[in-house]
Specification:
Blueprint (H helix, E strand, L loop, with lengths): L8 E6 L4 E6 L4 E3 L15 E2 L2 H17 L4 H17 L24 E6 L2 E10 L3 E6 L3 E3 L5 E3 L3 E5 L4 E2 L12
Antiparallel strand pairs: 1-2, 1-4, 2-3, 5-6, 5-11, 6-7, 7-10, 8-9
Helix pairs in contact: 1-2
Length: about 180
């Protein structure tokens, strides 16, 4: 079951877990992976889940099942994290040097899925913010080892130049029926 936004939803900083959260009514809270150093100052105070936030979230709910096979819970988790990343994370400088250059020219837009290649590892990333030359992407793969001491975990964000984004190939699965 997909969660639909309502007037009771709001953002708050969860002091106990030290992360941004979304109160989804009086009895449910969703914790994002984003700590205080990643957040804009306004995210450290309680604020509304605005109409603009709801539109972005609903767009993600609509787009994600079209590009990935995911459970409803994973769709909601990804959509909420993407919404938080889009609206409440501090701007980043591109860190493209971690990733190989793509051999194909791509058109980047918010909600589009791409692959990034780092140290011969391919990972899936979702565009959550786009500008003329770079895109901020949300890592969908479990992790990505950037260097000996740096890594990204699922739902971490990184900004990369468009020439690092590689088209995500659809995997088609064959079903064989026994006679």
């Amino acid at each position: 079951m997909l969660l639909m936004p309502n007037k009771d939803w709001h953002w708050e900083f969860n002091a106990e877990h030290k992360t941004l959260s979304i109160a989804l009514g009086s009895e449910m809270e969703f914790l994002t992976p984003y700590n205080a150093k990643l957040l804009i100052p306004d995210a450290l105070q309680a604020s509304e889940f605005s109409v603009e936030h709801a539109k972005f979230y609903m767009n993600m709910l609509e787009q994600l099942p079209k590009i990935l096979t995911m459970s409803d819970a994973a769709i909601v988790q990804t959509a909420l994290n993407a919404t938080a990343a889009h609206f409440l994370l501090k701007p980043q400088m591109p860190k493209s040097w971690f990733f190989e250059t793509s051999e194909e020219c791509v058109y980047s837009e918010v909600g589009k899925l791409f692959q990034l290649t780092c140290n011969n590892q391919r990972v899936l990333a979702l565009v959550v913010e786009n500008s003329l030359q770079a895109a901020t992407v949300l890592l969908l793969s479990p992790s990505c080892q950037l260097s000996g001491s740096k890594s990204l975990n699922q739902f971490d964000t990184i900004k990369v130049m468009h020439d690092r984004l590689q088209p995500a190939r659809r995997v088609t699965r064959r079903h064989t029926a026994a006679a």
